[in-house]
Amino acid sequence: MTGQEWIAAFAAELGLEPLAEADVEALLDLAGVAAHASERLAAPLTCYLAAMAGVAPADALARARALAGT
Description:
Blueprint: H1 3-13, H2 21-37, H3 42-52, H4 57-68
Helix pairs in contact: 2-3, 2-4
């Protein structure tokens, strides 16, 4: 199973629509900012926190970049 297939299947398992491509890109960038500004473990947990806060991926990315000073 590819990564995209896994994500689509897991979204369906959770009763969610598949992720939009723009959201995928923003989340990957968000994870990258978090990992480079801190430790690797910050990447998935930052994405989780953004989701828990109900923040759109692009907004979360902008906030993370501001926090990281990038």
